Amino acid sequence: MVKDALAAAGIEAKVRHGMGTACEWLHIKIPRQGSPDETQALGALTVLITQEITGRHGEYAGRINWSEYDGGVYHGADYTDQVGRWERS
Question: pTM score, two decimals?
Answer without folding.
Answer: 0.69
